C-alpha cells in the first residue's frame, strides 16, 4: 500500500518536533540536526520537516512512497499519463535515505515526488532543485542542485 509523503520547511526544528510529536502522539522515527521524519500508519503518511534545505517555509513538496518495486512502477505509469514533464532521478540519497525516485509538478508548480526507499544514509544527500522541477521542460532529466530544495 502506498504512503503519502509531505515535507514541510520550518524555522525552528526543536519547536516543530515538539509540536508534531504532540500532534501525532509519537516521537519522530528519524531525527537529525536539520531534519525529522515520522512514519505514521494512521494516517498512512511519511511526514518530514527540515531547516535550511528548503526553498520556502511551509509545504515544500508532496509525494507518494511506494512499498515495493512493482508499486513504484505502477505509480511511474500514472505520472506518464499526467502529461507533464518528469524528472527521472533514479537511485539517489536524499533526506537521510537511499531511494529510487522521479519528480513531477502540477500545472501550478506544486512539486510531487514518487519514490521507493530501500535504506538509510548518514548524510542528507543531494538531488534536483524544486524550482527546476516546477519549471522543467519535457527533455529535462537527471539530478541538479540540493536534495528537495
Automatic annotation (TrEMBL):
Q: What InterPro entries does the entry give?
A: ArsI/CadI-like, Cadmium-induced_rsp, Glyas_Bleomycin-R_OHBP_Dase, Glyas_Fos-R_dOase_dom, VOC_core
According to the entry, every stretch annotated as the VOC domain falls at 2-117
Q: Give the Pfam families listed for this entry.
A: Glyoxalase
Q: Name one GO biological process term.
A: response to cadmium ion
**Name this protein carries in UniProt:** VOC domain-containing protein
Q: What is the organism field in this record?
A: Parasphingopyxis lamellibrachiae
Amino acid at each position: 500500500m502506498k504512503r503519502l509523503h509531505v515535507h514541510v520547511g520550518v524555522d525552528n526544528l526543536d519547536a516543530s518536533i515538539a509540536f508534531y510529536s504532540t500532534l501525532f502522539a509519537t516521537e519522530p522515527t528519524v531525527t537529525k540536526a536539520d531534519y525529522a521524519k515520522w512514519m505514521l500508519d494512521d494516517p498512512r503518511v511519511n511526514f518530514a520537516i527540515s531547516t535550511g534545505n528548503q526553498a520556502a517555509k511551509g509545504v515544500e513538496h508532496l509525494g507518494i512512497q511506494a512499498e515495493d518495486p512493482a508499486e513504484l512502477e505502477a505509480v511511474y505509469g500514472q505520472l506518464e499519463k499526467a502529461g507533464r514533464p518528469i524528472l527521472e532521478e533514479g537511485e539517489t540519497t536524499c533526506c537521510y535515505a537511499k531511494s529510487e525516485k522521479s519528480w513531477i509538478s502540477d500545472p501550478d508548480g506544486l512539486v510531487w515526488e514518487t519514490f521507493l526507499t530501500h535504506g538509510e544514509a548518514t548524510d542528507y544527500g543531494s538531488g534536483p532543485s524544486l524550482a527546476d522541477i516546477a519549471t522543467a521542460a519535457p527533455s529535462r532529466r537527471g539530478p541538479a542542485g540540493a536534495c528537495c530544495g
